[in-house]
Amino acid sequence: MNPAPSVLALSGGVGGAKLALGLQRVLPPGELAVLVNTGDDFTHLGLRICPDLDTVLYTLAGVVHPKQGWGRDAETFGFMDELRRQGGPDWFLLGDRDLVLHVERTRRLAAGERLTRITAAFAQRFGVPTQLLPMADSEVATLLDTDAGPLEFQHYFVRLRCEPRVRSLVFAGAAQARPPEELATVLRSSALRAIIIAPSNPFLSIDPLLAVPGLRAALRAARVPVVAVSPLIGGRAVKGPTAKIMGELGLAADTASIARHYAGLIDGLVVDEADADEAGTLGLRFAVTRTLMRDDADRERVARTALQLAERLAA
Ligand code: GDP
Is the Cβ–Cβ distance between 169 and 200 less than 8 Å? Predict the structure, then answer.
């Protein structure tokens, strides 16, 4: 049997998965649990699609598309080609291998199985030693109010490539959601020693998680250090609309804004070398490393830095 997790990571998709992989590589097998955003999930062509869960799963299984950071490696697109031929909606790319998870997930959900159980079964089939947990079993949907009108998440993110200006966000269904019981087991375990917030988009990927009632309090009640890794490097996002959205919401795209966003939740922050001077002015414990994760050595270094900061904070 796997040991109880000693580290819980909070993650969105591509950025979060990089750190999750680093943590999985530096920890003994079974010692990592990852709580994943499901606010991006949607139903498309009758299929229940969970982009962040699948990105983390493929990454931890070593089968993710190496350049994209999402989707499967060695993918084929016969389904999309035929769908296009039939005039079906082709703005959301579904590879043939990737499609299997959506079909199988949809079948099992319809049969009454919980998303947490289905996800655990997928992870086991892929030989992933990490416990993957969706933030809730019930549906939560991130909705954006933008200058192009109200938008569902994937329409904003994929179809409109994050171009509209964001005015505000709501997480529909969050108030009725509950974290899965498996998370309570992780948080109550005496084996737990750190909670790490991955450098995922704080607004699109981590906020939906924190909107699930009781989750923030449950993280604090675990009484272990909570450490975030900043998604910004010198005021820029590595990828995606984090800095753009911060500007649209009237925030400076800097380390101080990230620290303020997580105030009351985090005990420490990992920042890039480019942001070390600024971090020193925040009145928050921090650690510095190169946080750009291009290869496994980078992912392991950032993971170790976060774990070492948590260890220092616990001492
Ligand atoms: P998404 O759901 O696929 O958009 O992915 P996430 O929300 O998990 O990650 C997006 C965030 O990850 C962006 O804000 C990026 O700046 C950040 N990110 C991506 N790669 C890296 C990296 O190598 N280092 C750091 N520090 N942040 C990264």
Answer: no
**How far apart, in Å, are the Cα atoms of 249 and each of 151, 198, 244, 252?**
16, 21, 9, 9
pTM of the model: 0.98
Nearest partner of 246 among 234, 258, 238, 233, judged by Cα? 258
Closest CA to ligand 1's atom 11:
200
State which amino acid sits at residue 159. R
Q: How far is CA 49 from CA 41, 45, 133, 143, in A?
A: 6, 10, 15, 16
> Amino acid identity of 21?
L
105: CA distance to ligand 1 center in Å?
A: 26
What separation in Å is there between the alpha carbon of 233 and the centre of ligand 1? 11
Q: What is the pLDDT along the chain (315 residues), one digit of tens a residue?
A: 568 999 999 999 999 999 999 999 999 999 999 999 999 999 999 999 999 999 999 999 999 999 999 999 999 999 999 999 999 999 999 999 999 999 999 999 999 999 999 999 999 999 999 999 999 999 999 999 999 999 999 999 999 999 999 999 999 999 999 999 999 999 999 999 999 999 999 999 999 999 999 999 999 999 999 999 999 999 999 999 999 999 999 999 999 999 999 999 999 999 999 999 999 999 999 999 999 999 999 999 999 999 999 999 999
> Could you give the angle at the alpha carbon of 245 between the alpha carbons of 163 and 56, nearest 5°?
90
Instruction: Using most ligand atoms within 8 A of CB, pick from 53, 135, 200 the residue to mutate for ligand 1.
Output: 200
User: Residue of the nearest CA to atom 18 in ligand 1?
Assistant: 15
